[in-house]
Amino acid sequence: MTDFIIRPWAKVDLPSLVGYANNFNISKNLTNQFPFPYTEEAGKAFIEFAMSGDPIHIFAITVNDEAAGGIGIHPQSDIFSKNAELGYWLGEPFWGKGIISKAIRQMVEFGFKTYDIDRIFARPFGTNIASQKVLEKNNFKLEGRFEKVLYKNGEYLDELVYAIRRTEWEKSRL
Question: Phi and psi of 95, rounded to 5°?
């Protein structure tokens, strides 16, 4: 297990953000808001956005004080106000080291302690088996599969919805 820290994004993270994010193997599993190629301009805009939250809810995952990925909890509004979406990515050199699994655990705890929500959900692509496994490892349950509703890189993909409820999270902490 590689040591890591979750902390707010800072302007000094721009070079490492662009360096790790500019990777097709990462962008292919994310929405088009995470562009490829990942430019310095995209990185600056993202860091400004992440730093503007109140409270901060989008964080850098750092390894040796270098931003190696990102994770965020996004509260929903209107009739979805008791829900928050979890999103994350990690630089390819750090895959398979247990970082995302522990980061998800920390963000679920942050989400339930910070917001008046009952459910945290994530929406991995059907092709992203690693993300599905790490969510299941963290007690997220598959709630639904929507066949061929996503269109990315010229192909239709399935969208999965995984979620953890506050009651299940509380039980898992005992």
Answer: -65, 150
Does the pTM surpass 0.90? The reply is yes
Residue 105 to residue 172: CA distance in whole angstroms: 11
* Burial track 63-84 (b if 16+ CB lie within 10 A, e otherwise): beebbbbbbbbebeeeeeeebb
Per residue of the chain (174 residues), give pLDDT as tens: 679 999 999 999 999 999 999 999 999 999 999 999 999 999 999 999 999 989 999 999 999 999 999 999 999 999 999 999 999 999 999 999 999 999 999 999 999 999 999 999 999 999 999 999 999 999 999 999 999 999 999 999 999 999 999 999 998 876
CA distance 119 to 165: 4
DSSP string, 68-93: EEEEEEEE--GGGTTEEEEEEEE-GG
What's the rounded Cα separation, in Å, for the pair 89 and 68? 9
Going by the DSSP 8-state scheme, the letter that residue 54 receives in this structure is S
